[in-house]
Amino acid sequence: MKITKICCIGAGYVGGPTMAVIAKKNPNIKVTIVDINEARIAAWNDEDVSNLPIYEPGLAEIVKETRGKNLFFTTAIDEAIKESEMIFISVNTPTKTYGKGKGMAADLKYVELCARNIAEVATTDKIVVEKSTLPVRTAQAIKSILHNTGSDVNFSILSNPEFLAEGTAIEDLLNPDRVLIGGESEDAIESLANVYGSWVPQERILRTNVWSSELSKLTANAFLAQRISSINAISELCEHTEANVNEVAKAIGMDSRIGSKFLNASIGFGGSCFQKDILNLVYIARSYGLTEVADYWEQVIILNDHQKRRFSDNLISTLYNTVSGKKIAMLGWAFKKDTNDTRESAAIYVADHLLNEQANIAVYDPKVNEQKVLNDLNYLNTRSEDENKDLVTSFNDPYETTKDAHAVAIMTEWDEFKTYDWQKVYDQMKKPAFIFDGRNILDKSEMEAIGFEYSSIGK
Ligand SMILES: NC(=O)C1=CN([C@@H]2O[C@H](COP(=O)(O)OP(=O)(O)OC[C@H]3O[C@@H](n4cnc5c(N)ncnc54)[C@H](O)[C@@H]3O)[C@@H](O)[C@H]2O)C=CC1
Ligand SMILES: O=C(O)[C@H]1O[C@H](OP(=O)(O)OP(=O)(O)OC[C@H]2O[C@@H](n3ccc(=O)[nH]c3=O)[C@H](O)[C@@H]2O)[C@H](O)[C@@H](O)[C@@H]1O
Predict the structure, then answer these.
(1) Fewest CB atoms less than 10 Å from the CB: which of 3, 203, 350, 453?
(2) Strands (E), 121-176
(3) Ligand 1 in contact with 340 (CB < 6 A)?
(4) UDP-glucose/GDP-mannose dehydrogenase C-terminal domain: which residues (predicted)?
């Protein structure tokens, strides 16, 4: 099928950047991104592209170039579905917070709503593309909804999981390691392969069956997260043995079978997907009675929780076993650098632990505002919103944030943190002045020469 119009349901961190790049690379295809969230759509349509709802390096430029030409953002969902030959489902699939599978399974209600919406309004044949990360065998459910409409509209379902990482989304989309397309209908698969083919070499477009494609996405995230938990586990051992985790990571990473990427020890991984996808994998394995498989992957999450807890415990014990009434300056709140996304950020959990010990938290993140910080903490429901407001303050300036602080905790690896005038930070802090570098981005000897009591991960 020749594709002239694409609709993407879900204008989020995946839908937005992915469709912007598809539009840029396919000027003859009209791409419409729809969402039920009016405020989000309005932000995507904001004249001033610095107000887009998502911060991603390079995204604003592409939106500026394509918006209003062949890229459109709207809440008119039905119209966009009706006119398009290809519809991407790119809605959120969070961990369930209720009922069966609570805390483990993926909540598929938004995906199902999309399938029902498509089934209801489609009058011509459609290729429906799963872009959201979904449990293996979800295509079966979507198929069943779409094929029971009583109409003679023909639907082909494809799985096309997304592998972009936030902060490098545009780079990842422009130059992907691979594009994965799972499906039954060869015609549908080739239609989608052609869309990507306008900039991705054919040998990097991998075709599989639907189930392999769905499961590959969960597996890729599980493997990536497992590497982080593995190096973080070793980081704790390093702290007891005078080994240095950076040196260990370098030494093992030079083995081409292991590879050097994704071996940075940290306060633990965050982000909306690693934990959610592994919990989902564990849930699926348990539902097939595969206890050993489930336990194996669950350990990745257990270790990650341990790493976050270990960081706050170490901070508290170093500050003479109490942080009550002490000002702890947290540099960074986003789950990684170059994004404004804070979902599941380790900073939230570390702050929560410290607040339980009655610390005063001062936060500075170049892309996250105070309301978002408070919303993240309120969402945990550990204490009242008023208490969070009393104990947590955000600043727009790192020097204000660290002034009179007892300790600085580095939570995100923003590049600008490395360039600060650390002597100035030191001079205005309470003494002894402690730094807890949760990202290993500062130079230990430099910090110690200034006078800081410096501790990092795995050294
Ligand atoms: N964030 C990331 O870096 C990556 C996410 N993914 C997966 O992509 C999917 C989407 O993730 P994000 O873009 O981060 O989520 P998001 O939460 O940023 O965006 C999802 C959007 O879908 C909209 N939506 C929900 N139900 C809708 C409906 N029935 N009709 C219209 N709009 C609806 C929401 O209002 C929201 O704006 C998830 O399954 C996630 O696991 C995959 C790769 C990378
Ligand atoms: O499905 C998804 O949502 C995406 O999840 C991750 O991307 P993302 O979460 O955006 O970012 P990552 O770069 O993977 O970082 C995740 C977390 O791990 C941490 N991390 C990463 C690498 C590392 O060596 N050490 C480490 O602690 C980061 O700081 C961050 O908190 C995957 O890298 C993407 O391929 C995938 O598409």
Answers:
(1) 203
(2) 126-130, 155-159
(3) no
(4) 329-444
Edge-to-edge strands, sheet with 71-74: 71-74, 30-34, 5-9, 86-89, 126-130, 155-159, 179-183, 205-208
- In the numeric block, the tokens 């071996």 are attached to 263
How far apart CA 176 and CA 7 sit, in angstroms, is 22
Residue whose token pair is 């593995």: 230
CA dist list (Å): 400 to 79, 177, 389, 397, 434: 50, 42, 18, 5, 16
**What is the three-class DSSP state of 303?**
helix
Helices 370-380 and 346-356: angle between axes, nearest 10 degrees: 70
Helices (H), 392-431: 398-402, 422-427
Identify the helix (H) or strand (E) that includes residue 436: strand 434-437
pTM of the complete model: 0.96
pLDDT of residue 6: 98
335 lines ligand 2 (CB under 6 A): yes
Catalytic residues: 162, 217, 273
Q: Is the CB of 221 under 6 A from ligand 1?
A: no
CA–CA distance, 381 with 401 (Å, rounded to integer): 25
- Binned at pLDDT 50, 70 and 90, residue 41 comes out as very high
d(CA 310, CA 324): 18
147-197: per-residue pLDDT in tens?
887 788 999 999 999 999 999 999 999 999 999 999 999 999 999 999 999
pLDDT in the model for residue 45: 98
Does the interface ipTM go beyond 0.90?
yes
Checking phi first, is residue 41 left (phi over 0); if not, alpha (psi -120 to 50) or beta?
Answer: alpha
Name the residue of 44, 75, 91 to mutate for ligand 1: max ligand atoms within 8 A of Cβ. 91
